[in-house]
Amino acid sequence: MKRRVVITGMGAVTALGCKVDELWTRVCNGESGVSAIQRLNVADYRVRIGGEIHNWSVDGYIDPKDVKRFDRFVQFAYVSGIDAVRDSGIDFSRENPWRCGVILGSGIGGLETIEVQHERLLSKGPDKVSAFTIPKLIGNTASAQLAIQYGLKGPNQVVVTACASATNAIGDAYRQIRDGLADVIITGGSEAALTHIGVSAFAAMRALSERNDEPARASRPFDRDRDGFVLSEGAGLLVLEELEHAKARGANIYCEVFGYGVSCDANHITAPDPAGVGAAYAMSQAIQDAGLDPGDIDYINAHGTSTPLGDVAETIAVKAVFKEHARKVSISSTKSQLGHLLGASGGVELILTALAIKHGVIPPTINYETPDPECDLDYTPNQARERNITFAMSNSFGFGGHNGSLIIGRLRKD
C-alpha cells in the first residue's frame, strides 16, 4: 500500500527575502527581486541584471571558520535546509537516522569555486589551488553537509536535470517516502550560477533578457514583449514526511503531496519541444499518479521563464492536458518576480504553491502588459487573486528536455 506524504517544513533563500514569510508577502505584493548586479563587475557585459541576493550572511548558521569550506550554492542550501528543519519542528536526535535522508537538486553546483580556483591556478600556479576545491564545487556537497549536520544516514543523492533539478529531487523524495524506503527527507534545490561565467555564457546563448535599464520589468512571462529569462540565485528546501509519522509527533502540516510526473522531450539540448508534448506527458502523469482528473486542478505555478519559445510551448501543453478546463484553471509564473533560479526554481516554486493553497491566494504574474495571441490563458496578470485551492500543480522544464510536474493539495480527510 502506498503511504501518504506531507510537507511539514519550508525554508527559502531568494532575492525577495531569505525567510519564507517575507518571500510570500513580497511575491503577493507584486514586487520584483531583479536588480542591477552588484557582486560582479559586469560593466562591459551584454547582460547586467539578475536576481541577486544582496547582503548575504550565514551568521547563526555556519561557524565562521567553516565558511571557506562552503561554496555559495552550498551556503544557500544549508541555510534554507536548517530553516526548513526548524520550521518542521522535527528533532532528528529522536529519529532513526537510517530512515531520514536528503535529496537535493542543483543544475550547476559550485560554479563560483571553479572560477576562483581556475584564476588562482593561472595566476599563482598549481600548488596554490585550494585543497577545499573539489569538496566545495561538487553537486552532492550540499546534501552531504545537511546529512552531516543532522546525522542522517538514509537516502542521500543529488539530481542534475538543469532547471527541473529541484522538482525531480522532490519527486524522488516523495517516492522514497511513499514506497516505504524513508520516513523523512529534506529536499529541494540550490543554485548560485550568478557568476562571471554564468552570466556571460547564458548571455552568449541569447537566453537572457537584456532589459538592463529596467531590471524590475525584465522578467515578463507570457507577455508578448518578453525577451528571455533573468538569471537568479538562491534555494528552496522542504521537509517531506510520511503522514502518520508527522501526526505522531504533532507536526504542523502545510499540505499533502499527491502526484509526480516526469518525462524527456528527446528533442533538442536547449529548445523545448514546440508542441509541448514532453511537458504535457509529465503533467498528465502527475495527474494520473494523484488519482485526479485535469478538472480537479485549481492552480498551476507555471515554469514560465519569459522566453519566447518556452512560454508558448507550456501554454500549448496546458491546453493539451486540460482541454476546456485550461481556461478555468488559474496560472501564474512567480519567475516574473524572482527571475529564474535554474536548478533551485522548483523548490522555491513548490513552497509558493503550498502557501497559495494555505492562504487561498494566487500569486500574480507581474509585468504582464501586452497579451501574446499564442499565450492566451489566465496568467493572473499583475495582481494577486483570492481563490480556494484544493489541488495545485508546479511545473519545471529544463535544458535537455527534462520535464517534471508535482501535484500538492489540502490534506485529504479520509
Describe the structure.
The structure is a single chain. The chain is 32% helix and 18% strand. It is α/β, with parallel strands linked by helices and 414 residues long. The chain has 2 domains: 5-248, Thiolase/Chalcone synthase (Peroxisomal Thiolase, Chain A, domain 1); 260-409, Thiolase/Chalcone synthase (Peroxisomal Thiolase, Chain A, domain 1), CATH 3.40.47.10. The strands form 3 sheets. A 10-stranded mixed beta sheet has the order 5-4-6-7-1-8-14-13-9-10, sandwiched between helices. A two-stranded antiparallel sheet has the order 2-3. The protein has a two-stranded antiparallel ribbon with strand order 11-12. α2 packs parallel to α5 and α9 (277-290) crosses α10. The chain starts with a strand and ends in a 5-residue tail after the last strand. The mean pLDDT is 97.
Mean pLDDT, as a whole number? 97
Please state how the strands of the largest beta sheet are arranged side by side. Answer: 5-4-6-7-1-8-14-13-9-10
Largest sheet: 10 strands, mixed
Span from first to last CA? 15 Å
Radius of gyration: 20 Å
